[in-house]
Amino acid sequence: MKTLTVMLKDLRLISRDRFGLVALLAVPIVVIMVIAAATQSGAGSKSILFPIVNDDQGPVATALIRAFNEHLDVREVSRATAHHLVAEANDAPAALILPRELSKRYLAQKPTTVELLTDPAQWQELEAIKVVMLLADRETASLGDPFSQELLRLHERNITGDHVSFSSLDQNIPGFSLMFVLLTLIFSVSLALREEEVSGTSRRLAIAPLPPASLLGGKLLARLIVGTAQLLLLLLFGHFVYGLRLGHSPVAIIVVAAAVVTSMTCFAAVVAAFVRTREQAIPVGLAVAFVLAALGGLFWPLYDLPHAMQSVARLLMTSWSMSAIQDVILRDRNIAGISKELIVLSGYSLAFFAIGLQLFRYGEKAKS
Amino acid sequence: MHRQQLLRKQDYEEDIRSFNAPSPVDNQGERARAVLRIEGLSKSYGAIAAVAGVSFDIREGEVFGLLGLNGAGKTTLISMLATEQRPSAGDAVLLGHSICNERRTVRQMIGVAPQEIALYPMLTTAENLRFMGRIYGIKASELEERVEQLLESIGLAERRDDYVGSLSGGMKRRVNLAAALVHQPKLILLDEPTAGVDPESRDEILKIVRRLRDDGNAIVYTTHYMEEAEHLSDRIGILNSGRLVAAGTLEALREELEFSEVIELTGFTAGIDLTPMRALGQLCRVDRDEKRLRLLVKRAADFLVPLQKIISRSGKSIQLKIMPFSLEDLFLHLARKEVNG
Ligand SMILES: Nc1ncnc2c1ncn2[C@@H]1O[C@H](COP(=O)(O)OP(=O)(O)OP(=O)(O)O)[C@@H](O)[C@H]1O
Ligand SMILES: [Mg+2]
């Protein structure tokens, strides 16, 4: 009941900050538009150089090369040149090696591994290439070629079938939306707590008959509601303006948004405990949000990270958040399909809230 | 040594126990019921003893004026009573409940107006009060009426829907006070409620405090304004470097002194010879500077003859004023006395 009172009061305070509310959506939308303009695949990808080493010289290689050529600046080169273009000159983000006997094995229904030499520094172009490779696969399939899903392996990873069909927008819109929600939450939770100190009201609340959990919980609930609405509106913006898919289940997307934002809100409470002044909120908030976004796969797909970092990423709530959202919007899963992510995110939420509350209590006690 | 500091918990536990027992109905008796008993309350910050073994009672329907210079420990004492800070030693018992061990209960019974304004500038006056009411668990059905009543009593009913941030400093002070009263506390702690307001707002605030007292509330009130404390307080306590150096009614405090009136001579006072007055043997203290001579005496009337001589000799260049020893004089006297040892 008192939690609700604190929440309603904070919601009311939030609603009074008109500029803040507009910025909540306007800033990420502007950034998403810039990113989208810069990374949109299609028109721009024709300028991407894609060296291919054709050791196969068979029909499958020819079909693939024809398909790639529709979207990319394909050049058949020698192994040495390919290596040079990618690794030394950095003119091409990746080169594809179609091995000897590819066609033969393919037609015999035997799987083949095709090697993609990449330059991870050019991740955006690389991503475009991956998208094109996927398109090419589909196009060749539609021509009636017997491309079955298991027969073509990229870097020992199957790029078709179950794997997510990334386009840069599918990655960037949810990724940047999540990043901004996280950033907003870290800022706003830290600032709301400091604001309470500046206005002196934290002293009043500290001596009111109200447990710290209600106080912190109420404040977080208000932020959680705003954050969930922010995330959903950003995804809807992506949907209507850029055609971002939102999956089949509206319930799932709302639930996943709420779960994701809950874990981020509780995390923000932990960060807020370390932000002692309003001025600290900006550098601390930026640093934490960017590191979590970068490691958690919000800026680029996780498979673009080095192996060591990928294992770190799996420990972060941002990577669970991203994969939960992608499960819903790209893999069309319903709530049952993301139950594992929901459980993990709830676990994070509880743990962060407990830690945040402990730190909050400790902070209050330190003052007395 | 500070006697109070040596007071140990065992020493007053007996009192608390007897206090807890239902007492015979003696509200109409000569001594009103003690609402709050402060026993050896202390608070240290490292080497600084902000409050050092303070003990006193506060009774029903009483305003207790707590005076002290900057840094004397007033805010620290108030914040311990408010359960905001934990005492380093000692305890206080509010209607049978310890501020150390029964914080939840005590909090519900206390209203605090902090020294610094503590309100949400982006909520309206009424919203601020309503929020405090809900936090203290006031029923929705009673809250609206209570808020209206408070707004009326602080004279801000017309500003009910204005953001607190847009109110003047004096108005904020009044809202700050009202926010402490929404839940009708038994003990009201006011930390310099008139700091930085104009005389009109101050009168307004003092009127509110008086009304609260008349309703039977117990009020602890800190201030720098001696005059204010003199007019408002039933009893006065003077804090000096964390110690309560005096407590009681103004009359009682005055009686302890060997003088009660001040004779003030202004004008060309340098040449005045005090020998005839000293001969009367009752001159307690002389403060002298270029333009002013202050004589602290038991009874000014005893000095009328020599005074008349002084004045008639000086022509019109000297003015005479006789006044009672004010609280300000008393306070400064006590403060100075302590500092000197
Ligand atoms: N949090 C704190 N940490 C360290 N010292 C403190 C703290 N709070 C108060 N003090 C010290 O305790 C002493 C009493 O301070 P307090 O604020 O109680 O004085 P005060 O009588 O309210 O003064 P004022 O009239 O200026 O409000 C001062 O020496 C002050 O520096
Ligand atoms: Mg003070």
Write the SSE topology:
The complex is a heterodimer of chains A (368) and B (341).
Chain A lengths: L1 H15 L1 H22 L9 E6 L4 H13 L1 E4 L2 H10 L5 E5 L3 H6 L4 E7 L4 H20 L9 E3 L13 H31 L2 H6 L5 H31 L7 H25 L3 H18 L11 H7 L3 H13 L9 H29 L1
Parallel strand pairs in A: 1-2, 1-3, 4-5
Antiparallel strand pairs in A: 3-4
Helix pairs in contact in A: 1-9, 2-7, 2-9, 3-6, 7-9, 7-10, 7-11, 7-13, 9-10, 9-14, 10-13, 10-14, 13-14
Chain B lengths: L8 H12 L13 E12 L2 E12 L3 E6 L5 H8 L7 E6 L2 E2 L4 H7 E4 L11 H11 L4 H14 L15 H11 L7 E5 L7 H16 L3 E6 L2 H7 L2 E6 L2 E6 L1 H7 L4 E7 L7 H5 L3 E6 L3 E6 L6 H11 L3 E7 L2 H14 L1
Parallel strand pairs in B: 3-8, 3-9, 6-7, 7-8
Antiparallel strand pairs in B: 1-2, 1-4, 4-5, 9-10, 11-13, 11-14, 12-13
Helix pairs in contact in B: 4-5, 6-7
Bound molecules: adenosine-5'-triphosphate (ATP) and magnesium ion.
Adenosine-5'-triphosphate binds next to β2 and α2 of chain B.
Describe it.
Chain A has 368 residues and is of the alpha/beta class. Chain A has two domains: 44-158, abc type-2 transporter like domain (abc type-2 transporter like fold, 3-Layer(aba) Sandwich); 169-367, no CATH class. Helices cover 67% and strands 7% of the residues of chain A. Chain A has 14 helices and five strands. Chain A has helices at residues 2-16, 18-39, 59-71, 79-88, 102-107, 123-142, 168-198, 201-206, 212-242, 250-274, 278-295, 307-313, 317-329, 339-367; strands at residues 49-54, 73-76, 94-98, 112-118, 152-154. A five-stranded mixed β-sheet of chain A has the order 2-1-3-4-5, sandwiched between helices. In chain A, α3 links the parallel β1 and β2. By secondary structure, chain B is an alpha/beta fold. Chain B folds into two domains: 2-249, Rossmann fold (3-Layer(aba) Sandwich); 258-324, Alpha-Beta Plaits (2-Layer Sandwich). Chain B is 36% helix and 27% strand. Chain B contains twelve helices and 14 strands. In chain B, the strands form three sheets. In chain B, strands 6-7-8-3-9-10 form a six-stranded mixed β-sheet, sandwiched between helices. A four-stranded antiparallel β-sheet of chain B has the order 2-1-4-5, with helices on both faces. At the A-B interface, α1 and α8 of A face α3 and α4 of B. Bound molecules: adenosine-5'-triphosphate and magnesium ion (MG).
